[in-house]
Amino acid sequence: MDPRTPCLVGVAQRTVRDQPGPEPLDLWEEVAREAARDARLPVARLDSIQIVHTDSWQYDSPAGRLAERLGATPRHQAYSRVGGTAPHLLIGAAAARIAAGELDAALVAGAEALATRRAYRKAGERVPWSHPAVPKPPYGWERPPHPAELAHDLFLPVHTYAIMETARRAALGWTIRQEMADRARMLAPMTEVAAANPYAWRRTPRTPDQLVHGSRFVGWPYTRDTVAVMEVDQAAAVVLVSAALAERLGVPADRRIHLRGWAYAEDTWEVAARPALGASQAIAAAAAAAFGRAGVGLGDLGAIDLYSCFAIALRQACDAIGLDPFDPRGLTVTGGLPYAGGPASDYMLHSTAAMAGVLRERGGHGLVTGVGMHLTKHACAVWSTEPGGASGDARPVFTAEPVPIVAAYDGPAVVAGYTVAHDRDGVAERGIVVVDLPGGGRAHAHVLGAESLTEAESRELVGQRVRLTTDGRVNVARW
Length: 479
Prior knowledge:
The protein is an alpha+beta fold. The chain has helices at 24-39, 62-70, 86-99, 114-122, 147-151, 157-172, 176-195, 208-213, 243-249, 281-294, 311-321, 347-362, 450-456; strands at residues 6-15, 48-51, 76-79, 105-113, 219-220, 233-242, 258-266, 301-305, 365-372, 377-384, 396-399, 411-422, 428-436, 442-447, 465-470, 475-478. The strands form three sheets. Strands 5, 12, 13, 14, 15 and 16 form a six-stranded antiparallel sheet that branches. The protein has a five-stranded mixed sheet with strand order 1-6-4-2-3, sandwiched between helices. Strands 8-9-10-7-11 form a five-stranded mixed sheet, sandwiched between helices. Helix 1 (24-39) crosses helix 2 (62-70) and helix 10 (281-294) packs across helix 11 (311-321).
């Protein structure tokens, strides 16, 4: 084996349930030290410290402050942008630098303390955390929402993902009840995995019936108990080193996890611009490239963790890679974002750490996937106890061609996907639709009025012919 071959040798996870809990910097330090101990690596030996963007607090120098806490002087530091693929992009970059001989040891860490922020907010107190960035930097979007999306209040994932869900439901010819029942049956086994995971945020097994009827709607047809839980206090870290350093540290071969192959791809940034609202060309391309680079196939995997912020993310991934959603191997090694926890951009660190634990115990190959933004960015990574493969890089193996978006439109259209936004009391507020236009392209529109919203939630609206009117900024659909 090439002495520069990168391998994952240290992992750590932390979940804090006592509120208020520590700040993200404290959590970074805890998991960094634990992951380094697992790797048998003195923290001062780290060549690189990379931090996943935290929504909880903006520090003046995230990686620098952690380096100070650890007493390390890394020659490389990085702080990611926002997105569920961010952990793996950092991991992939670290692996590439190690393979190139630029680094010997890299830490990738992430932490959120959103539950603690909520606890302080409920108490009417300010968060007393250290080293704030002054001035506060702009939010770490790679690309802000489209003006037409903002005009129609379509920027929350609970609404964008729901629109894609209804489009897929209609394409399959499912009824509303069928989709909800299938979703509950798919997610219920994940609650059992979470119940056995000591780091999971929600550790109560749920039956399919409980998931169908147990909670209020948030972005219809999604209920609160079937979407990612983001307000958590969780942290995770991984340490990667070269094979030569792993030997010097005395890390046993069966505790080294190898990144055999990974790939990155992009669907369109705007949901309305997606060629097929209910399907993902990019996931299929990323998975095919990752499997090809790893030299393994779906049938060779012993464990799988698919990004699960919303059911449509799971379903599109299963559709794209040919995986039965009820495969006996399961869809998660953590319990997934709705139950194990969905700590903003961090989840893929947790799934990678958990997958490392599974592979150390069982051996073989495992797949971890990540999703960023509105099912836009996709990362697929094959990890293994067996070295080999061709790794990969962050250059997109596929980029979808967008359908044109028409901001203001007056005239006939056909509903392509939709959701109904609900308030915190579960009351339907407005419908948000994406429509196909007669001349090509798509537009957004609101649906207003209690009677129309009730109808939208009781029958299939996809395929409905509607008439849009506009004030030049916001379109309204009627039928």
